[in-house]
Amino acid sequence: MERLTEGRVSFFAPVSKVVSKELPVFYNPAMGINRDISVALIRALDRKNLVIADPLTGTGVRALRFLKELPAAAIDELRVNDGNPKFPALFRKQLALNKLPSKKIVAKNEDANKFLLEGPGLDYIDVDPFGSPNPFLDAACKKIARDGILAITATDTGALAGSFPDACRRKYWAEPLRNELMHEVGLRILVRKAQLVAMQYDRALVPVFSHATDHYDRIYLHAEKSKSYVKNLLDQHGYLVYCPACLNRATSRLNAAVCHCGTQMHAAGPMWLGMLWNHALVGRMITKVEGAAEKLVGTIHKEAHIPIVGFVDIHKVCKLYKLTVPKSETVINELKSRGYHATPTHFSPTGIRTDAPFEDVKDIIIRQSEQA
Which of 31, 33, 44, 235 could lock onto 284 through a cystine, CB 3.0 to 4.6 A? Predict the structure, then answer.
């Protein structure tokens, strides 16, 4: 193993061109931005005496960063665990390397679900597996405390984004959509799955931050214990219907629709149709990140106040109608001049999130294309 750095910590980890479960200790350097944002989000919450659990700790880099980068009063107890028998000794070594005390730490080598279920109620749980989070959702939903945050990563985006639709139906109880909207649809399917698991225990999980980055989906869910709140969430589950002929789209309570152009629309879902972000929280996070994470959070802050499912991809529209691609900025400016909200989206470099009707967006793209 080599000595590496991330954020304000140093740690020992294996270095490999291929990230896999076969590594002696699991470490994925591409998840650095994931960890940047988790630190920023907890800092933005500005809460004290949290009991935090990382049931799949790997090298321990996320937990180390919590200890080093969060205010001292933020953590009452940090509970870390990994299935690797060498983990407890390795984590002690990581603590010593960073000159961090062990008095707030509980480090175990157990099955992740056993670790969660036999511990106390938890204010923050980070479920960051290799693959699907499904095996850990039940235990995490049982142990997340009222007003807690459940953070979930899914790296099986082939299922969620529609490359393997049967896997999505089997794992996430939903129909994916394989087109320019696939990553947002996959994220919303993941949110609904976690919500359904938590609803069994009268827990309502509401997204406060979400992003689809590179090869993974990531969601942060705020927990409330309320039957009425659970009912409210169920009312926000539904479908996105999408026309492959003219690109029109709409949300629906039904999984079948015919477009105004006469084409049978594709239906994705059921999925979460509510907001993916808490705009105020995202605003506080911006000042607590830098580099690539700052750019990502900044883009999300702009789109977080637009309560719309999906976005319009300029390149997709231009390809269908054989148009010259106009600049996104000019399209956004014209939409704003007409009184609509419009902004880039982090889901696609050529996407625009807007509350304008699709036909209006299409007309603006056509006119801007003619002037390009």
Answer: 44
